[in-house]
Automatic annotation (TrEMBL):
Name of the featured protein: DUF4013 domain-containing protein
Keyword S-adenosyl-L-methionine: no
UniProt cross-references to InterPro entries, sorted A to Z: DUF4013
Membrane spanning stretches: 20-38, 72-96, 116-139, 171-204
Domain of life: Archaea
Keywords from the named record: Membrane, Transmembrane, Transmembrane helix
Keyword Transmembrane tagged: yes
Natural source organism: Halobellus limi
Length: 231
């Protein structure tokens, strides 16, 4: 799977053009709008990888790219809201515990309640970390299902998402994507000081989205008895 993913951005008739366009859009993300075109391209990668395409999509039909990018942004926003709600709850518990425990040793009842809140605060923090890790693991599957079905609602189809992400195929793809992001992403980031790294970062993004799309689709097909992607 890893070798396929690493060669994927270089397949097709015009891989250099695609990487150049993707890198230029990455350079222009300070103007915001190019971000949505890139997001739309990543949706196409997820969609193509999910259906077994061995060649990356091209930058064409820019209107559709923009629409898909806006949809993926909306999905990201909704997922982020879940994390923010958890963060708010944890912060509220921490704050309440600090205030009550600050009553001092003379105020035994308050100190006792503060201690309880402090315990809940620690548990809440651990819960928050667990939620963030879980979201980081599940979110790519949500994005992949959204791309497959071309529907924002599909990103929150709980049964389908669970079926897809609770498989060895998805786990392997997710781990590989993280490793590629950490290793090659770090190298490309260092090279960004001479601009060429920007194009490297785009290449890394293409590889990781391919892995997410392929891993989710293969896992889902395997779980539901379909024709799984050959590895």
């Amino acid at each position: 799977m890893l070798s396929d993913a690493l060669s994927y951005p270089l397949n097709g008739d015009s891989p250099l053009r695609t990487i150049l366009v993707g890198g230029l859009l990455s350079l222009l993300t300070v103007f915001v709008i190019p971000v949505f075109f890139l997001q739309g391209y990543y949706v196409r990668i997820l969609r193509g990888a999910s259906s077994g395409d061995s060649e990356p999509p091209t930058f064409s039909d820019w209107g559709d790219l923009l629409v898909d990018g806006l949809k993926l942004f909306a999905v990201n926003l909704l997922v982020s809201l879940v994390v923010l709600v958890v963060m708010f709850v944890v912060a509220a518990i921490f704050g309440a515990g600090s205030l009550l425990s600050g009553a001092g040793p003379a105020a035994d009842p308050g100190a006792g309640v503060g201690g309880i809140f402090a315990v809940f605060g620690v548990l809440g923090f651990l819960l928050f970390v667990a939620v963030v890790l879980a979201v980081g693991f599940v979110a790519p599957g949500m994005f992949a299902n959204f791309a497959r079905e071309d529907s924002i609602a599909a990103a929150f189809d709980v049964s389908t998402i669970i079926d897809g992400v609770t498989t060895s195929e998805y786990l392997v793809a997710w781990v590989l994507a993280v490793v590629v992001g950490l290793v090659l992403g770090s190298i490309a980031s260092l090279l960004s000081v001479v601009v060429v790294g920007i194009f490297g970062l785009f290449y890394v993004q293409v590889v990781t989205y391919y892995l997410f799309g392929r891993g989710f689709a293969a896992g889902l097909d395997e779980k539901r008895g379909g024709a799984a992607t050959t590895y």
